[in-house]
Amino acid sequence: MRPAGFPPSEPSRGAARVAGRVPPRARAPEDPRRATCAKDFAPAGRAATLAGVYAVLSILVWAFTVLSMPILFAGALVVFLLTFAFDRRRVLLHLYGCLWASIYVWVNPLWRSRVVGRGRLPWTKAAVLVANHNSLVDILVLYGLFRPFKWVSKSSNFRIPFVGWNMVLNGYVPLTRGAADSVRRMMARCQELLAMGAPVLLFPEGTRSATGALQPFKDGAFRLARQANVPVIPVAVCGTYETLPKHGFLLRNRMRSVVEVLDPIDPARYASTAELRDAARSAIAAALERREAKAQPEPAGAEREPTGPRSPRTGSRPSAPG
């Protein structure tokens, strides 16, 4: 308490501000150049760091791939020599190749792949398998089917040391794009394999997509199916383009691949090769669209379906309150 006769003291600035009588001190304006630099360089720095990590991982992955090829090919050669006399279709050698390819997916920390609908693939019956083609990784994840098939590949792949030699041992089918005589030999060899009861896998787009979008299909695979009267089995490969697109060997992103085997298509249901081709392409396109829709994040503020227990009477869930 202040003695009588003394005037009351002025309130401190802090107390006056609390009382609402003194406006707060204005802060010094932020340097716009500094703010711009912080916003521009922080994401760029993170992107550069991430690109560096992917580059290092790419070097390690390719180094492991190259160094492991001679060892794994030696295993393939042993399997071939042990099974050649009784395994006419070389199913066991192909399954060893499935293991070989899958090792590269399993050891890569950026890659995960799963197969849906594997049970639709035959073990002992002929079929024409058609898959979309986005990346070098496609055949690795397709080997993850662990089902017998012979696949058509460009002729230059058969000259790659160890990997190409294994393709020759397996009796896969070479093709030189744009060469009519090579196309005729490929079709004749595929007809022989189908007559033996071996499924054949082709990429009807003809080459990898440069953009990740599904390209038009060529007729060859579907002409084969009609001539041999065997089902066409569409296979949708989703998630490989982002990690290793065309025209590059550096890993770009994580891979969460899904290989979905779709329902077989009976060629007898279609009047022409073009109709059969379009039906298979439409099936793959719908599967890819469905997978992409599932991968999209839910929009902010979107209403979710209630997740409470269903009513035993109506089978419906209780509505949200409010």
Would you write up a description of this structure?
This protein has 8 helices and 7 strands; from the N terminus they run αααββαβαβαβαββα. The chain is α/β, with parallel strands linked by helices and 322 residues long. It has a 7-stranded mixed beta sheet with strand order 1-7-6-2-5-3-4, sandwiched between helices.
CATH topology term: Glycerol-3-phosphate (1)-acyltransferase
Distance between the termini: 56 Å
Low-confidence stretches: 34-41, 304-322
| Main beta-sheet strand count, sense and barrel state | 7 strands, mixed
Q: Return the CATH architecture.
A: 3-Layer(aba) Sandwich
- In the sheet with the most strands, the strands line up as 1-7-6-2-5-3-4
Rg estimate, integer Å:
31 Å
Number of strands: 7
Helix content bin: 40-55%
Report mean pLDDT, rounded to a whole number: 83
Count of helical stretches: 8
Please write the string of helix (H) and strand (E) elements: HHHEEHEHEHEHEEH
| General shape | globular
